[in-house]
Write a structure and sequence with these properties.
The protein has 255 residues and is mostly helical. It is 79% helix and 0% strand. It contains 11 helices and no strands. The chain starts with 6 loop residues before the first helix and ends with a helix.
Length: 255
């Protein structure tokens, strides 16, 4: 008997990722309507959607989303740039790794909120402090993955570079970096994910705009619909950015 072709199913495979979230929404609705959670503790899903829709129609929501996206974008850009530089340095140099890696490994364990008071002292309450805090979150996955990836480049590839008498810069460009590229992309994907976690802490630094500000404002005003809506926005935008990086990763690694 001939096998049933799979490609027809593959076109809607992404829909499988919606099954569990849809079930969770149903459970969420039941928990509220059956009285397990009071309305002031957990609002109904439709109430949250209605709140976000009303804010969108009024125009308030888009300003908050835009400023958060801007902060994440510049924070990731800075974190990836510094992480790539230091990851390359420690991956290529054993001495640099011995000097820097223990310190950086220690710093990566500091929670995002613990940085906030220090950044307030150093950089004030402006946009620079927020972007730098997000950059800290994006930096560590990029640094760790690239440093490890460069350190694990196959000796066979390095011997080929020597056989062809490639210079150091040429060997890095044509052998080392292409071999470590998958590790770098995994690090960038992780960095983008951490950036969305750090942006919440960043927007606690005297922010008057942003999804993190909405979250804090919802807490102050005792608006659970705003709180849950803000959390869902973080989840949605974070997932979109992860899918974007994943798409680039798949194309580049295949190439």
């Amino acid at each position: 008997m001939r096998d049933v072709p799979i490609p027809a199913i593959g076109g809607v495979r992404w829909l499988l990722g919606l099954v569990v979230p849809a079930l969770l929404v149903v459970v969420w609705h039941l928990l509220v309507t059956t009285g397990v959670f009071a309305a002031h503790q957990l609002p109904e899903p439709l109430r949250v959607v209605g709140t976000l829709y009303a804010m969108g129609v009024a125009g308030d929501l888009w300003g908050h989303v835009a400023i958060t996206l801007q902060r994440v974008f510049f924070g990731v850009l800075l974190g990836v740039a510094v992480g790539t530089g230091l990851g390359t340095l420690t991956g290529l140099s054993g001495l640099a790794s011995d000097l820097l890696d223990p310190l950086l490994q220690s710093l990566k364990n500091i929670p995002s909120l613990a940085w906030v008071p220090l950044f307030l002292l150093w950089f004030g309450i402006g946009e620079g402090a927020k972007v730098l805090l997000i950059a800290v979150g994006a930096f560590f996955p990029v640094y760790l993955n690239l440093s490890t990836g460069i350190g694990e480049v196959s000796e066979d590839l390095l011997e080929v570079a020597e056989v062809y008498d490639l210079g150091r810069v040429e060997a890095l460009r044509t052998v080392v970096f292409p071999a470590a590229l998958p590790s770098l992309l995994v690090g960038i994907r992780g960095g983008v994910g951490l950036a969305w976690m750090f942006v919440v802490a960043a927007e606690l630094i005297a922010a008057s705009q942003g999804i993190g500000f909405l979250l804090s404002d919802g807490r102050v005003l005792a608006r659970p619909d705003v709180i849950v809506g803000s959390i869902l926005l973080f989840a949605f935008l974070g997932n979109l950015s992860d899918l974007a990086v994943k798409g680039v990763q798949r194309r580049v690694v295949d190439w």
